[in-house]
Amino acid sequence: MLAVAKATSALFALQATKIKAPNFHLLCPRGAYDGNGNLKSDSYKGISTITYNHLNLPKLITFSTGNTIEIIYDAAGNKLRKIVKQGATVQYEQDYSGGIEYRKTPAAGTFRIEAIYHEEGRYFNLNVDASNTPSWRKEYALRDHLGSTRLLFADKDGDGMVEVTSNASTNEVLQENHYYPFGLSYGGSHWMNDAARDNGNKYNGKELNEDWGLGWYDYGARWYMPDLGRWGAVDPLATTYSSWSSYHYAMNNPIRFTDVLGMGAGDFYDEGGKYLGTDGKDDERLYVVTDKQEKIQIQKTDKAGGTTPLSNVSSATELPSAYVRGEMGKAVDRAGSPSFHEEGGFFGTKKEGGEYVVHAKAGEKSRPLNRQRSFN
């Protein structure tokens, strides 16, 4: 565990390093960027201003027409509500609660459940715009190797078969999607599309926000512009790897890789915190590699532009999550004082999900409880 501790300390230093702002206008010549590297306007799409919250997530997008999109998040950056307005008039509000979405329009006057999303597709309420009484339809999704929704279908007549007809009322293929490599959808008059509201979870299974022609995907940590193949903000984990632009998508190889959250790929480091290479998965996971030959091989693969699957690295030890590492960093900073001694801090997983960290008091040594791992 000493190797993990050393690498963790080195990574703290990496993450604390400030990046010199690049020439942002080269990333999106049609737009302007703020001091944090966030796109704040886009003349091509008629976006006059974009306001961001403390997590560099867009909270208010204002168009030159006066139309707006407002997004409300919780403190951790999880999207809770989207409010779409034409001028000062609300067109609709969308609430997000895990995989359940609710919709409110001026005509309805109240939130109605719209859909329940799950691994195989969604339950869609056909009455969401018409009645407070739900009318459910089971819709199933066929996805490709990147997790992108390619086809949505339903057994409308309940005969156990999927009929493809030229009649909109009997055709059971509801939605057909095709994409350019970096995720921009392309269409055609021959694509099948049911009259009901589309399943918005398309490229990589992420939600496409099409209001007022925005065309951005919400990946969680950042929003993505598939027409440019770039992000609208800096990677939150950009300081953990310097060999890639912090705006690149999927290591510029979208045919092979996907970006799970919009943050840096899973990376390998040595015991001193030196970057070795990546596994190509944008899952925010960091690993310490101790075997000499494996380190050499990972570096060779990285220099050749390749990635190393985690299954090929037997000496890899996963570091705690970014949140836990941040809290550990606070303990390290406090312990840096000659008059301060701290032992016994621990972290664990809550029963309802999520992580927690408990810091020890000065001079005390706590005994870690069940399901808790000490980090001092």
Can you lay out the helices and strands and say which pair or pack?
Elements (H helix, E strand, L loop, with lengths): L1 H15 L14 E3 L5 E4 L4 E6 L5 E6 L4 E6 L5 E8 L2 E9 L2 E5 L7 E7 L2 E5 L10 E8 L5 E5 L19 E4 L30 E3 L6 E3 L4 E3 L4 E2 L35 E3 L5 E4 L7 E4 L2 H12 L12 E3 L3 H14 L10 E4 L5 E4 L13 E3 L2
Parallel strand pairs: 18-20
Antiparallel strand pairs: 1-2, 3-4, 4-5, 5-6, 6-7, 7-8, 8-9, 9-10, 10-11, 11-12, 12-13, 14-15, 15-16, 16-17, 18-19, 20-21, 22-23, 22-24
Structure description:
The structure is a single chain. It is built from 3 helices and 24 strands. The chain is mainly beta. The chain folds into 3 domains: 202 residues, no CATH class; 81 residues, no CATH class; 40 residues, no CATH class. The strands form 5 sheets. An 11-stranded antiparallel beta sheet has the order 3-4-5-6-7-8-9-10-11-12-13, with no helix packed on it. It has a 4-stranded antiparallel beta sheet with strand order 14-15-16-17, with no helix packed on it. The relative contact order is 0.10.
